[in-house]
Amino acid sequence: MRKYRVGILGATGTVGQRFAQLLENHPQFEITAMAASDRSAGKPYSEACAWKLPGTIPENVRDIIVTPIEPPLDCDLVFSSLPSSVARETEETFARAGYPVISNSSSYRMDEDVPLLIAEINPDHVGLIEKQRANRGFAKGFIVTNPNCAVVSFAPPLAALHRKYGVEEVIVTTMQAISGAGYPGVASMDIMDNVFPYIAGEEPKVEIEAQKILGTFANGAIENADFTVSAQCFRVNVLDGHTASVRVNLKENSTLEGVVEAMRSFPSLDLHSSPKNFIEVTDEPTRPQPRLDRDNGDGMTITVGRVFPDNIYDYRFVALSHNTVRGAAGSAVLNAELLVSKGLI
Ligand code: NAP
């Protein structure tokens, strides 16, 4: 199997560290370049990075000298985990220089010629790449994005319901982990003994991204799904794992058994980072819980529980995903595996 050389933009951050961890023994990708801010550039990764994951910094990246976030980088593609303030310009520069850019940032997610991918749900949206290259004059490079980390928790069960019954409207309340804010993130004085009812810029993203992901690709464009989402987003005192409390109205008649079956049977893919179960539905009344369920499927499974008929909406349920794995680096790696399998990388 060919090994592709990858660069990480934002390599020293919370998501950048996940990339280093997930790619340590990856059969298709090998990290050959790491880039971050001027604060880090010029230092070995082990010195530039305040490693916050269990275990030590992977041996294969310790001595890589961190560079500025500019091409050329010694790699075939880049994963980007840059803050959105710098991502828009930098990612375009890399795509223009010929690199496939697989991004976690919000900068390009809603651009009409940029795929917003959850590999299991809308792999056909990679068809937008051709239009993107034509629109933007990219000869070889392109930009593909993965969704907001909170959206990743509830878009999969919604996709299962949308395919079978059609989704009409959704109310979602997210309880998002501290690591979702990057490092050092929220001040401990704000989050200890507390629930924080505001995450800057989050609710608008959570209200629009699922409709694009569940949209239909035809004639070189995405037609967004036509349901509405109302969202409230909270930061909670949990290290990793975003939880979403969801209420949903469906377009067609349904049964509770049919709803559960639609979620349970939503197929996973056969790629290296694919979990055995894309969506796991638990009947255990006290689950899902971030501490107990975020690592299901090595952090790539969406765990759903407490699926019931609702007094006002048709159904309610709770969905959980690991925000830095399925919600960020893990999804980006899976997207890259998908792009390789389709011959686009
Ligand atoms: P983070 O921990 O703050 O890391 C940010 C990274 O970007 C660091 O490597 C930092 O380098 C680099 N950086 C910051 N400003 C820069 C600049 N002006 N020029 C060049 N490099 C710069 O943030 P994060 O949580 O990893 O998030 C990164 C991106 O992923 C964000 O867009 C975020 O919204 C998105 N995301 C995060 C999560 C999550 O769960 N955390 C989930 C999904 C998506 P230095 O160390 O040198 O400062």
What does this structure look like?
The chain is of the alpha/beta class and 345 residues long. The chain has two domains: 4-148 and 328-341, NAD(P)-binding Rossmann-like Domain (Rossmann fold); 151-323, Dihydrodipicolinate Reductase, domain 2, CATH 3.30.360. The chain has eleven helices and 13 strands. It has helices at residues 14-22, 45-48, 59-62, 84-96, 128-136, 151-164, 188-191, 202-213, 256-264, 290-293, 325-341; strands spanning 4-9, 29-35, 77-80, 100-103, 142-145, 167-176, 216-218, 221-223, 228-235, 242-250, 279-281, 302-309, 315-321. It has a six-stranded mixed beta sheet. It has a five-stranded parallel beta sheet with strand order 2-1-3-4-5, with helices on both faces. Helix 1 (14-22) packs across helix 11 and helix 6 (151-164) runs parallel beside helix 8 (202-213). It is globular, with a radius of gyration of 19 Å. The model has no long low-confidence stretch (mean pLDDT 98). It binds NADP nicotinamide-adenine-dinucleotide phosphate (NAP). NADP nicotinamide-adenine-dinucleotide phosphate is lined by residues 10-16, 36-37, 39-40, 69, 81-84, 86-87, 104-105, 149, 179-180, 182-183, 323-324, 327-328.
Summarize, please.
The chain is an alpha/beta fold. The chain has eleven helices and 13 strands.
